[in-house]
Amino acid sequence: MDDKQGFGKDEHHLSRQGSDRLIGGLNRVIEHSIRVLAVLMVLVIILCIADVFFVLYEKLSTPPLFVLEFGDIFTVFASFLAVLIAIEIFANITLYLRDDVIHIRLVIATALMAIARKVIVLDFTTLTADYVYGIAGIILALGITYFLVASKART
């Protein structure tokens, strides 16, 4: 593995090298499509930030004014975390465009952030034990995977 925690330097996905013009052209289409995804992700981030403002305004403007109840705090946290997850996905997209490798550690960290958001906003009064055990298994698997990938990068 190289120092980017992705694929080796000779294993790029969108390589334009080679004699096949069709594959080279298709790779350029994919690269432009990824750029469009990056632009769309920025729009999603802007909309998520607007949602944070809207949620805060909505929660603070309902009686009692300027008071966040316990459930409201989790709603606001969920909105904030959605923005952070969108930013992490944007970082994944831009790093993939720049380096043409998948940064495994960043992808796993994004997944950990997404599952942490899920845990923060869970309503344990409506969940079954199987659902909670399933989420615990996902968190454990992602945590172990992140640890192994990070420790491999240090060696």
Percent helix = over 70%
| Spatial gap, N to C terminus | 11 Å
> Roughly how many Å is the radius of gyration?
20 Å
How confident overall, as mean pLDDT? 85
Total number of strands:
0
H-E string: HHHH
Description:
- The chain is an all-alpha fold.
- The chain contains four helices and no strands.
- The chain has helices at residues 21-61, 70-99, 104-120, 129-154.
- The protein starts with 20 loop residues before the first helix and ends with a helix.
SSE arrangement:
Blueprint: H1 21-61, H2 70-99, H3 104-120, H4 129-154
Summarize the entry for a quick read.
The protein is an all-alpha fold. 74% of the residues lie in helices and 0% in strands.
Features:
single chain, 155 residues, mainly alpha, 4 helices, 0% strand, flat, disordered N terminus
